[in-house]
């Protein structure tokens, strides 16, 4: 699997590029989702936004594969991150909780994607847009540690 890491902020993309240097199978892009999703098969989207835009009912703790019937604004397959208990964000305030959330959200989304579409395991390109996926923070150190852990395990 290959990944496109994107953000509307060039500074955020530069920070990701520096933190994830040395990990293969990653491309970096700057812009909104419609502009950065070209050539992507799926996109990780934070669960409230995913369900509002693309339907489905959140299941606490479970990532979901949703379809984008409209196309154009995002890839055809939307990977909704798991919600927390009781429909909460599932993210605690500490750096270690943010790091773990980032790792677990990405891991759950990709596992569910591969479960539904096993043929995509080796050839899919997945967009992880920082703002759309709910990973973006003012201080990106903890999310980037979680993302790096995920990419090293998945890659």
What are the SSEs and their pairings?
Layout: E1 2-7, H1 10-19, E2 26-30, H2 33-36, E3 42-45, H3 47-54, E4 64-67, E5 77-80, H4 95-116, E6 125-129, H5 130-133, H6 141-154
Parallel strand pairs: 1-2, 1-6, 3-5, 3-6
Antiparallel strand pairs: 4-5
What does this structure look like?
The chain has 155 residues and is of the alpha/beta class. The chain is 40% helix and 18% strand. It contains six helices and six strands; from the N terminus they run E-H-E-H-E-H-E-E-H-E-H-H. It has helices at residues 10-19, 33-36, 47-54, 95-116, 130-133, 141-154, and strands at residues 2-7, 26-30, 42-45, 64-67, 77-80, 125-129. Strands 2-1-6-3-5-4 form a six-stranded mixed beta sheet, with helices on both faces. Helix 4 packs parallel to helix 6 (141-154). The mean pLDDT is 92.
Describe the structure concisely.
With 155 residues, the chain is α/β, with parallel strands linked by helices. The chain contains six helices and six strands.
Summarize model confidence as the mean pLDDT. Answer: 92
- With strands numbered from the N-terminus, the spatial order across the biggest sheet is 2-1-6-3-5-4
**Portion of residues within helices:** 40-55%
Order of helices and strands: EHEHEHEEHEHH
Sheet with most strands: 6 strands, mixed
List the defining traits of the structure above.
155 residues, alpha/beta, 6-stranded mixed β-sheet, 40% helix
